[in-house]
Amino acid sequence: MDNNKCLLLEFVNEDKKIAVGYQDWLQDKISGEKKYLDIIEKKSEVKIKWPNCDIAPALIMKKRVKTCEWKTVVARILSFGEWTKMCQQRDNLEIYGILEATKEERKSMCKKQWSDDEEPEDSQRKKKYKKKEMNIETKSSKLWKELKTRKTQVSIIESEQSSDDDSSSKMSQHFIQENKTLKKENNDLKNENVALRISLACIENLPKINNLVETILLKTEKIHDKIDLITDSNGNNLMENDILLTTEKIYKNDLFAKKNNSEATNNIIEMTSNKELLNNEKMINLGGKGVLVNAGRLRNCNRSSISQYTCDLLSVVFSKEELATSSLTGKIANTMKGANITPKPALNSKRLEAIEAHVFSIFECNKDTQKLFKAAVRQKCNNATPRASRRNQEDDNK
After folding, report:
1. Which candidate, 302, 326, 327, places its Cα nearest to that of 312?
2. Which residues make Cβ contacts (< 8 Å) with residue 22, sequence separation at least 6?
3. How far apart (Å, rounded) are the C-alpha atoms in residues 76 and 43?
4. Which terminus of the chain is more exposed, N or C, with fewer CB under 10 A?
5. Could you tell me where the beta strands, DSSP code E, fall in the chain?
6. Helix axes 349-362, 367-384, angle to 10 degrees
7. Could you read off the pLDDT of 136-171 as tens digits, one per residue?
8. In this predicted structure, what is the pLDDT of residue 310?
9. What is the predicted pLDDT for the residue at 388?
10. Would you say residue 43 has pLDDT above 90?
């Protein structure tokens, strides 16, 4: 396809439509200007391939032809030459009926198109426009009247609504206040319900505590009976030191049992109130171990380092007495095995595991961080012990 090789065609079977095409689309190729002139003079028909798209210059058509469908069409050649020339001749044929029209011919053709009968049509059109203007003015006046009447009606309605709005605003304020009071009462009832559940759990565990107290009293009575039996002829008690040691051991064991039982009751209280406290956003399950912690206190813990965060968590989960009377493992350190020191019991393993799991969910878990965690627990327990007891231990060690 070339812009210099174009054709002006008239389609025979399509109401003599006129279009511009390319010489390359002819099925029987024609060589030379003489053959084209002979075909134009004889008005002979020619077969040409025609794309199913809009015809454009060669650069654009090369892209369009790739996706177009073709059909063979019968046409007559009217002229041949460049693209722009063929387009001008097409326009001349459609407007003036001539391939190449001069300025004078164009003017004469335009004058012929305007007949003498068209002048009165302009006057008629002017009359029609005047009538339309009159109609519009009458309609506009009617609309203004309607608008005035509607404005008066709207003003009356607004005055009535203002009085209604005042009453409705008072009612809405009353309902808002009632809603606030109801919300407060609902929250108070929820808190009372939680407290009642906890107190019920404590009441359920009271028989176990009573049984432990009774067993301790029975054991002490048996010990007193044994002390009364073990006497010499002069009335002096034999093996007094051994009996005292045994009583101390029994007393310590009973205390340890009491602590375990109190921890068990606390865990039972925690588990019974889990269902409601988990729904409440103020409590968080620490490390997924069933240990519930207040979200506000957990939020206040310092996360600048592992040691600082563990110390803050220990003070949240354990009381000061538990930290003062407990240790990390419940064993004496290797450096202090020669001294006469009684080992402290280990911290509650479940709560300590919950703290550890929560800490390592935030910080990276490796050997160094585990050492820091254990050192922080030991330091917290040592700092929780009163100073007087520390000095006594140091004196005993000396």
Report:
1. 302
2. 1, 2, 5, 6, 7, 58, 61
3. 6
4. C
5. 6-11, 18-22, 45-51, 70-81, 283-286, 291-294
6. 130
7. 778 777 788 888 788 787 778 777 666 666 666 777
8. 93
9. 52
10. no
Question: pLDDT tens, 349-378?
Answer: 999 999 999 999 999 999 999 999 999 999
Most confident of 257-261, 276-280, 281-285, 341-345: 341-345
**CA atoms lying within 13 Å on the CB side of residue 64:** 14
Number of other residues whose CB lies within 10 A of the CB of residue 93: 18
For residue 109, give the amino acid letter.
M
**Tokens 């231990």 belong to which residue?**
393
- The helix/strand/coil state of 89 is helix
CA-wise closest residue to 9 among 95, 99, 69, 134 = 99
Quick one: pLDDT band at residue 277, thresholds 50, 70, 90?
Answer: very low
Across 88-102, 254-268, 364-378, the highest mean pLDDT is recorded for 364-378
Ordered structural domains, the chain, with CATH: 6-113 (no CATH), 282-398 (1.10.10.2590)
Give CA–CA dist 289/22, Å, rounded. Answer: 86
Dihedral-angle region of residue 81 (phi above 0 means left; psi in -120 to 50 means alpha; beta otherwise) = left
d(CA 185, CA 98): 97
Residue entry with tokens 């032809």: 65
**DSSP state, 30?**
-
Terminus-to-terminus CA distance in the chain, angstroms?
113
- Determine the length of the chain: 398
CA distance linking residue 217 with residue 251, whole number of Å: 11
What is the rounded radius of gyration, in angstroms, for the C-alpha atoms of the chain? 54
* Short-list 306, 304, 299, CA closest to 360: 306
Helix axes 367-384, 306-317, angle to 10 degrees: 50
Residues near 376 by Cβ (< 8 Å), separated by ≥ 6? 306, 307, 308, 310, 311, 314
Distance CA 200, CA 269 (A): 9
Q: Would you call 65 exposed, middle or buried from its count of C-beta atoms within 10 A (0-12, 13-18, 19+)?
A: middle
Q: Cα separations (Å) of 102 from 9, 123, 320?
A: 22, 33, 114
Q: Please state the φ and ψ torsions of residue 237, each to the nearest 5 degrees.
A: -75, 135
- Helix, coil or strand: residue 51: strand
